[in-house]
Every structure is written in structure tokens, then in C-alpha cells.
Write a sequence for this structure.
């Protein structure tokens, strides 16, 4: 798959590659140099724990208040 470099040095990652690596807007990618001189594109944040929970962001309902949490932590009735 070939793509064109813009005047700013930017390229568009083909959709097939984005889908394969699960690259979404805001994803971080890394370029690594292979021993044979080729450059390899890898998803840089694939192993970060926070990314597993990204789809849950903003879905929490109304929970306990800070006072209720503190009372529970202290073992208060």
C-alpha cells in the first residue's frame, strides 16, 4: 500500500492498516527501524492499561458520595 507524503511530512495511514492495529483518532503510533532498514509502524499505546477502559469513559452513573465512601472505608454503619 502506497501513500503520499504532504508538504508538512504527514501521511494518511490506510484504513486497512488502521483497522488491523485498532488505531483510532488520538492513538499513539511508533516507527521502529528493522534490521534490514525497513521502518515498522506499531501502535504505541496498545499495552497501556488505561486504553482498556477508554470505551467506558463517561458511562458511570450516580454513585456514592465522598462521605458515604469514607464511612464504608472506615467500617462505619
Amino acid at each position: 500500500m502506497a501513500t503520499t507524503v504532504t508538504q508538512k511530512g504527514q501521511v494518511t495511514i490506510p484504513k486497512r492498516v488502521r483497522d488491523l492495529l485498532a488505531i483510532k483518532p488520538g492513538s499513539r503510533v511508533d516507527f521502529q527501524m528493522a534490521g534490514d532498514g525497513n521502518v515498522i509502524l506499531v501502535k504505541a499505546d496498545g499495552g497501556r492499561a488505561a486504553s482498556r477502559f477508554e470505551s467506558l469513559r463517561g458511562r458511570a452513573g450516580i454513585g456514592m458520595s465522598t462521605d458515604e465512601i469514607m464511612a464504608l472505608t472506615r467500617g462505619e454503619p
Remarks:
- Residues 1-49 form a domain with the Pemi-like Protein 1; Chain: D fold (CATH 2.10.260.10).
- The longest helix spans residues 66-74.
